[in-house]
Amino acid sequence: RADVALAAAAHGVHVGQDDLPVAAARRILGPARIIGVSAHSIQQARAAVLDGANYIGVGPVFPSRTKQFDDFVGIGLLRAVAEEISLPAFAIGGINAENLPQILATGIHRVAVSSAITRATDPGEATRQMKSVLAESSV
Prior knowledge:
Blueprint: H1 2-7, E1 12-15, H2 22-29, E2 34-39, H3 42-51, E3 55-58, H4 74-84, E4 89-92, H5 100-104, E5 111-112, H6 115-118, H7 123-137
Parallel strand pairs: 1-2, 2-3, 3-4, 4-5
């Protein structure tokens, strides 16, 4: 919620497709704060660019233990976004150290993870593994 982000002096907000539109969030937050938006199709990613989003979250790519989804965008959408969209893009949904190489092979080099770390037996080791895979892809 953009109003809560403003009241909390947050650096920004992330909105979903059913939340406040980017333009309305921008009116509340002003030009300096970050606004991200979820994109579940290439059309939504294109709209995010036109609407003035600072970044997009693309997914859900895989089934997640954090949220339940009926549909998954899969790797194809990540490739399309990497090829066409200039905004920073984060792959979201069910990402872990095992499937991270598939994500990185699409050209998307940012991920948002939750359960892969928070539900791991050893969160520190899970974090190190993911950082290692990410570091290898940037070489």
